[in-house]
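Lesson 9: reading folded outputs for more than one chain in a single document. The general rule is that every protein is listed as its sequence immediately followed by its C-alpha cells, and records are never interleaved. Here is the first one.
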Amino acid sequence: GLTSLAESWDARPISYNHFMLGHLMEWLYADLVGIQPDSTGTAFSKIVIKPRPVPEVHWASGSYDSVRGRIACSWKLVDGHFHLDVDIPANTTATVWVPSRAGSTVRIAYPNKSLGVLVVQERLDGYTSIAVSSGQFQFDSLVD
C-alpha cells in the first residue's frame, strides 16, 4: 500500500517519502562532473567547478539550470591529457579546479571572447585553481 518509496528496503514504518538514490545524483553532479555552489556566494552567484575523475571513467558531462542561468561542465581524459569545457552564466564568477600534474602548465582558451581569467594558477593537491568570469572556457592539462 505504499504510494512512494520507503526509506528502508524492508518497508519498515520509518518514512514513506524518501528521495531514493539522491546521494548518487549528488555524487554525479558535485563530484564526478564537478558543479558546486561556492559557499561564499548566494544562489550560485559564485560557482566552483571541480571535477574528480575516477579510475575507468574517461569522460563526464552535465549541466545545472541555476537561478542565474545554465552552468555546464564536460571533461574527458585521453592518454594523460585532461580536457575540460566550462560554461559560466552571466553575472557570476567561478573557481575552476583543473586536475593537473605538478610542474605542468594548464592551457586556457575562451572561444567566444569571454571576459576572461581573473586569477591564474594556485596549485593544491593535484589541481590548479583558476578564477574566471562568466563565459565559455576550455582547459587542457597533463595529469598523472
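And here is the second record, again sequence then C-alpha cells.
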Amino acid sequence: QTHQTELARRDAERRFADVRQLANRLVFRYHDQIVNLPGSLPVREAMLADAVSYLDGLAQEVGDDHALALELADAYQRVAVLQGEIFSPGQERIADAEANLDKALALLPQALGVGKDAPPPTLASLNSAADMWMGKSTLAGRRGRMNDALQALRSSRSYVVQARERAPNDLQVMS
C-alpha cells in the first residue's frame, strides 16, 4: 500500500511538472514567436491572461515548496515584463504588469526560504529577487511614483548586497 502510494505521488508530481513545462512553453516561447505577426495582439493578450489565471491557480497550491514559489515568482515576473514592454506594439499594460510583479514579490519570502527551515537562497535566486525589485522600480517610475521607485531600488540593492556577500569574487557591484 505504501509503495503504491509513493508511486502515485511521484507520478502526480511528474505530470504536474509536465503541465508546468507545457504552460511555460505555450506562454513564453510561442508569445515571442508571434510578437511581430500582424494582428497578434489579441492572441498575445489572451495567452498572457490565461498564463496569469494558471499561475494564480498554482499559487494557491504552493504550500511549503520553495522551488515552486521561486518558479512562480519568476513566471509572474516574465508575464509582467511582457505586459509592460514599451517596445512591443500595443502591449504596454503597466498596471497589469505591476499587479503581476507584485504577485511575484509577494512570493519572494517563501521562495527564498526566509524564516523557514530551508537551505539558504542561491545566488541565482538572489539575482532574480534583485531583478524583480528593479522591475518594480522601473514600473513605479513610469507611473510617476518616484518614492515607490526609490524604495524598490533600495530593496533591489539589498538583494545585490546579499549576492555579493555570497560570492564576493564573482560580482562587480557598486557599493
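What the second record shows: The CA atoms of residues 2 and 132 lie 42 Å apart.
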